[in-house]
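Standup notes
- DV: blocked on the single-chain target, sequence here:
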Amino acid sequence: MLHRQCWEARKRTLGEKHPDTLMSLSNVASAVHGQGKYTKAEMLHRQCLEARKKTLGEMHPDTLDCLNNVASA
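- DV (later): unblocked, structure below
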C-alpha cells in the first residue's frame, strides 16, 4: 500500500511526531478502514489522535479531524 510506504518514509526522514508524518498515518488508517479492517483502522486513528494531541494540542484543527476519524472508525 502506497500510503504505508509514504508513512514509513516520513517517519524515517521527518520523525514520528512531525505533522506530515501524522497526516500519512491518518491516510493509512483511512485506507485500512476502506478495506473493512475496522479494528485496525480505529487503533491507527487513535494512535494519530494521541500523537496530534501531544504535538499540536487538543484544539488544533488537525487534532479535531483525527478525533472525528476515531468517532467514524
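- Follow-up: Residues 38-56 form the longest helix (19 residues).
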